[in-house]
Structures
1.
Amino acid sequence: MRDGSGAAGLDVGLPQPNAVSQSARPWPVWARWLEALGVALSPAVAALVLRLRLMAPSLLPDPAMHTSYIIEGRDVFTRYASLAGVGLLREGGRVGFLVPARLAYLAFGAVPGFLVTRYVFALIAVAPVYLLLRRLYSPAAGVAGLVVVLSSPVIVTAWGTDYPDSAVVSYALGAMACLVMPSAPRWRRAWLAAAGVLATLALWSHLVAIPLMAAALAAWLGVRLVRERAGLPGDLAVLAGVAVAVTGLLVLGSAVVLGRANFFWLTWEGYRFLSNPRMTAMNHSATWRWAPYVTYLLVPPAVVGAFAVAAIRRGRALPTPVLIVGVMAATQVAVFALLQFAGSVQTLEMHYFSSTLWAGVCLAFAVTLGELAGPLWDRPLARWLPAAVLLAVPLAYEAAPRVPAFGWLPFGVILAVTVIIAAAVAAACARIRQRAAAVVATGLALAVFAGAALVLTVTPIPDHPRFGDRALKHDPPADYADALGGSATTHIDEYRIITALPGLVGRATYPGEQILIWRISPGKYRYIRDAAGMYHDGYNSLSSHTVRLPRNDRRQIQARRPAEMLLLGDTAEPFPVAVRALARFRPSVMRTGVLRAGSLVMRVWLVRLGAYYHPPARPG
């Protein structure tokens, strides 16, 4: 292989792209190192230039439930091990995300560890994409691929919380790029092994990765069976062997850093819990009528349509890696749509799930761009036009980030069709004989292509009727509009508070020393709600948020027999009244504290219930 020469000299046993060689001379060693450094620094550069929001609002306590395992995983299992058999500790089984996040926390602390983990996730996503686009087309195309991923509001938002979609979207993107990576024969199995590692990490990060990666592998296998079967059994054996090896390492890692080796049981019990009819009815809407108001869901089919437009002119000459990427994206979109509208999984209505679809969407978007800009890659200056356009579009949006709320009809569909038409126009620009005119026309078409997709993504969901057959507990919409140019200051302060809570509460002194949360604060204090998520808010919290203790809360305390109550609020003034309301349980205040970060304040009282607490047994 000649560095800097597109796909020249590559052979993976698959038909290779007809990339144009930009230089007959190999790159000097210093240029290779400079290129690697540029890719390694690209997330930091993008964060500065595009003002990426480094942390996102959690919207639900669910991310904090995963944060609790990152900060004090052993303590969670010590307190609530009895809940594992009913699926309520399922978050602890998502070790593909939790193990690396826990290691980063131990090495760097809460907020720095969060940012280090996200930087690693960003590199996992962008490095394979850069190399894939570089080998298929040119280094300039690789840079354009970097910008596609790092400017995606969906991916930036997914990276912004401790929900495992932050890991899945990166692992899946890297796995798909590695799976189709053109390479010399001696490196072919190494790239397959890398794909297997990342795909396995995705699967053990969240169950939503199962249909995502299954669709990707099915597409890869289908195209290989049609175009190139040579070496396929051995390739499958490599993927299977790597999956077994990585799973074994995760067992060891989970045992060491989380204190629980058997995450298989946690995952299975979590699946059983979420798949029972009651939970399905609560989380999955029986209707499709909400969908036409969620405009960003038009982006995946629009990108698949644009890919088809860009690829159809190549016909059978379409390179196999490019074809696989397109089939992967189309298959994933179809599978997620079937699970949502014909099945019982909320793959599209819950943005923590639907965000993972953007791994294939971004890869297909980048490859489509590479196909549309094909005539530019051999031109010294024009080759950088696609990357410049992709950078200019989000910067223009940040200058005036005000997109009105609208649904599918009519403006959403118009923009989705615009994405496809812009791709067709860009493809047609290759026929313009005047070189300067062709470059300008292609640049304008790509700007419309990227701009329409961005507007579809960031458009707020408009007000719409409440449908009687929609799930009662549906996920609030994601805040994609502020992912580019938004501020993370408040979100980082919230994270500092919730991650400091376990240190104030302390660890359990014996197995089963449960804590119940009494959140005495107005609902507007989201960071206090998220702090309750550190102790599994939905199950371990009283329903009342006032100092009154209604009958159903007293019954919950009697049924759960907690050793301690954790009182949370923005002011401690009502806490003495709350303690008196617990008189029948023999309360005693064990610890009080104030957690501050920026302008945010949370008051904490830890109250021991003498009726249920028992001292830990002494050894021997």
Note: Confidence is low (pLDDT under 50) at residues 1-24.
2.
Amino acid sequence: MLQIVSGQLTEEQLKNIVANNQCDVIAHELESTNLFNEEMKFNAAICIYRNGNADRALQLFKEVQDIKGMRWKAAIFWEGKIYAAHNQDSLALHTLQSMPGGFLNYKLLSHPEFETVSANSKAFAEFKNKFRPGFNFWTGLLFIISVIGIIVGFVLLFFLLSATCKINVVKH
């Protein structure tokens, strides 16, 4: 669905345009839009980046980070994506390493922008592999506990079935 807008963009319009990947439609309106909150700055930065103005997008993502609202972690991630897309491997890695724990995962680091960086930079490839799903102590412990739970469940099930059968035999 193509959206055509003119004049001042609203927060909802900008959000829908980013979601529908229609940033090229609003390139001219975006420059004259008053970006008055974090959400608008974040979505505008995405559109500006998609329209080819990485420097302006970086400036807006840094403003979003300074606000420290809901989108500041995502702004850091997008900053890393921009650096990666422009083959600035060390800046991309440094930016992503500065993120607080719990935000990044292997799927995020598998975005197309990071493929070249991952192939060219051993440090980035190692950083990305830290997030690769795998077995560790905690997943092993969880596996053992779940197997014990299944065994206990079957033992209880068979005990109850055999006890029920014995009660029915005694009644007859």
Note: Confidence is low (pLDDT under 50) at residues 1-5.
3.
Amino acid sequence: MNLTEQVRDQIEDKVKKDKFARKQAKFAEAENILANEAIDAGLGQYKKAWDCLPQDWLEHDESVQVRGVRLKMKRRALPGPWRWTDDMPVTDEFMERVRIFFRIKNAFCAHKTETMKNLRNLLRTVRTTKQLLAIWPKGKQYIPTDDKALLPAPLALNLDRMLEQV
């Protein structure tokens, strides 16, 4: 069976979902926790009132900037003209945790980008799903049930190693 562009896209989507989606969700959750810690530090005397608000009260996505670092978050919004500023009272230890978080997240994103680039290159070098399975047997789980695929052996081994690192 021919390895069409649609089949290639489906394989890429399955790899992303299988190997990267859970970890990306964990990064988003961790970033949200850091942003909430920064806001809790910034709330000061208003923290008690904030904690009394229902969890779903005016919940929305936004970001907070702490010492020049923007953190994405999902948080309950305070009514009125409330803005978070860059002068949040956070500790140096907190900022070190933020730096470590972004170092790990950026390394993961770079690995994901490189892996997906390698996968795209491999998929473009083959024409049939039969060839794909002959060279990259582990790729069978990512092939749509109607189709099968092929990758050159050295590239396939490299891709296997990259996916195992996730």
Note: The chain has one domain: 5-164.
4.
Amino acid sequence: MNKHYLVIPRIDVQRANAMVTAGVISLCPVMPAVMMGEAFGHATGLFPEGLMLVHHDAYLLAEQGLDHTSRSRVEHYPHQFRGATVINGKDIAGGDKKTPSNSIQPTASMNGTWSVVMQFAADSADADTLLSACKQFFCRLARLAGGVITDYAAPLVEDDLPKAMRACRGGFVVVDRSAWLLSDEQTRIERLLAFADGSLQPEFEAPRRWLLPASLGYALLTEPEDTEGAREGYPHAFAETLLGLVELISLRHTSAFQHEGGLEVEDNPDRTITPAESCFWRYSWPENDIFTLTQKV
């Protein structure tokens, strides 16, 4: 089936959230990007069938500590911000309702640049309609991972996926590698941490991989219910983040850069060419209390 691809290249974002759980920081905003696509659908009535995320640059807003032995900078200390928090009239940090404590809320923020490619059915809208909706959405509503979008290159619509990916002007497409966490010898969290710090590499691939954790869904811990102070009056529930493993792959190692004469990159027998069609993220509810992001069609 024919598709339209809406490309928003080089989105510059300031002070986006990088803390995906209480103990994990990630510079790869997969879930925020997919939810931005969902917000685009609610704002314009045009819901994407899938969303591709392309990484260009990201850095943590943090100070670096100094190792006094090696004189090298080894640790990052994310910038922290203070703020009073009251939930259901109770100060969870220990103050009282009249004088809430000015406690530190653990945060980790980042600046970065990403491109997104949204996939639409060809009969959903024409190119002019998609571009008009994109202009309306990004001028008024768009944010990415809570960060402010300060700039982006001119959006465009392509009917050819390779052309759409080339319009991102380089970068690294984000690919799901959560299946690599399955092992009889280690727990999933042990393998996730080992992949993330580079101490573990896939045995079946020769080149060193760029692997990192990412939020790929959540599991509800409570039933959604009306709660005083909930954002925009929506039902509120407590949930736990579902972590997965992703890889950043150069766009030049995807099928979008193939042609009849072979690859447009130096032939590398150890590097698998990733099908471009498999790089789109989609969400689903496999169970009533489980929300997940995958790249399965």
Note: The two ends are 14 Å apart (CA to CA).
